[in-house]
Design goal:
Helix content: 25-40%
Shape: globular
Largest sheet: 4 strands, antiparallel
Order of helices and strands: EHHEEHHE
Strand content: 15-25%
Radius of gyration: 14 Å
Number of helices: 4
Length: 104
Amino acid sequence: MPGYAWVLEVRPGYEEEYKRRHDEIWPEMLEALKKAGFRNYNIFRHGLTLFGYFECDDIKAMNAAISVDPVNARWQEWMAPIMKIDVDPQTGAAFLLPKQFHME
């Protein structure tokens, strides 16, 4: 299954709030992610930098599904004030990072 990664930022002073919100992620948001096709989704933080990694079978179908999910829309609205998000205009999602190395 292909893997994908992104980098975003938490706004200064919101590091603990970001963590708290993900510790208490809404069950319906988890279900929306799974339904859209996200698998093995992880987010790491270094200072203000967030690094996300996930796997999915079909990135275009996954983006299409999650972009119209009303739960995701509410989650994005709730998270927007505490994050800096650069959106790829072609996908409407965070810019994906090009893979540089893979070890099997």
